[in-house]
What we know:
Main location: mitochondrion
InterPro entries: ClpP/crotonase-like_dom_sf, Enoyl-CoA_hydra/iso, Enoyl-CoA_hydra_C, Mitochondrial_ECH-domain
Largest sheet: 6 strands, mixed
Distance between the termini: 84 Å
Number of helices: 11
Helix content: 40-55%
Strand order of the largest sheet: 1-2-3-5-7-10
Shape: globular
Strand content: 5-15%
Function: May play a role in fatty acid biosynthesis and insulin sensitivity.
Family: Belongs to the enoyl-CoA hydratase/isomerase family.
Organism: Strix occidentalis caurina
Radius of gyration: 21 Å
Number of strands: 10
Amino acid sequence: RVARRACLAAMAAARLGRLRGPLAAAFSSAAAAGAGGPPPHAKLTVRRQAGGVRNIILNNPRKRNALSLSMLQSLREDLLHDVKSKDLRVIIISAEGPVFCSGHDLKELSSEDDVKHHSQVFEICAEVMTLIQKLPVPVIAKVNGLATAAGCQLVASCDIAVASEKSQFATPGVNIGLFCSTPAVALGRSLPRKVALEMLFTGEPLSAQEALMHGLVSKVVPEDKLEEETMKISHKICESSKSVLALGKATFYRQMTQDLDTAYRMTTQVMVDNLTLRDGQEGIEAFIQKRKPVWSHSQDEKK
């Protein structure tokens, strides 16, 4: 009996180690090293676009795709590039390597850098996170691996998130004396308060299924189906009018901050405004005429 209890305890400890080991390694980007990363001259993010879909790939797996100042600047540039083009309909953010994003590069947050540099890192991070929700196209996080601290914040900030079954999400800053206060902004708006606070207070991760249950991600699929499912959503978005989606996205985030009566007054007017758009009338006419709409994707009003 004693031997059996000892065996069970050892198995439990092993399971815990398997969970915490990679989580700690992912968060501590300063310790990241080895093969698999881009050469020194390579971009920290890679931008590819085809068929209305822009893929932005975090491309520094050697550093667990940490959100260094340079990484954040590169991500911001790729998000904003030609964003008003009618050819851009949806953005996907994914990552190279087994870690989606480990959060901030801790080397940049050490006492070797001054307060001005620390402020710059957090300010551009906040800018990128809020930019995602201000863009006129839907942004999808395609997560295949760990997303910790500001990496978890990035997932929570996207409009849609599709994750593989092996993905995990955590805000473990409390374990190294740096509470995840800025990630808490996005988490607190995506998760029930008590779930968000448990993550923030303990640093313990959510599994992909737990993240789905609590609303941090939209879908969880097997790893070999992640690309297919993400593109399926993207192609469906591409079937709609860019101008109508842009109006709808902006309105959704605006009304979420308002009380119920104000939200209904505002959205009532937006529905009227939507009808004045060329694509608003085109969609209704196409439905009545039983044909496929031909979108202009413009903000022009119907004459």
